[in-house]
Amino acid sequence: LSVKAQKGFPIAMVESLINDGKKYPERFQLHAHKLGSVVGRFSAYLGSAKKEDWTMTVRAEQGARYVVFESLVQQAQFREQIAVEESVREAFSLDWPLDILVPIFEYLAKDRETVLSVRFGKKTPYLLDAGAIQLVVSRRK
Length: 141
Prior knowledge:
Elements: H1 3-8, H2 11-21, E1 26-31, H3 32-45, E2 55-60, E3 66-73, E4 76-83, E5 92-97, H4 98-108, E6 115-119, E7 126-129, E8 134-137
Antiparallel strand pairs: 1-6, 2-3, 2-5, 3-4, 6-7, 7-8
Helix pairs in contact: 3-4
């Protein structure tokens, strides 16, 4: 790593975002290997689209026992759903940058026991927590 990256990395800010994220309400939990399978298929489907267009919408209705994952490109729409550990307490819809998250989800999918917890508030970033790996994903504006 460059000296600039080593000295200038905002570790305190990242730790603060993670600690704040742990206070957000947990919206859902699911097995990471199932999400890895969905993301793998989406990346294959979207292979010919520009990486900037790789967005995955994640949504669920209140009381649902599954979360819907969708990806839209100009010529197609892809939709899959994954069962969650507990019923969804409050409806939500959010967008994740799939081009950035694909490698992380594929890595998490290698362990079939890993459970991914997703926490967020009305206007907060998203905290994706898989135990040893925690990731803060900013909201798209």
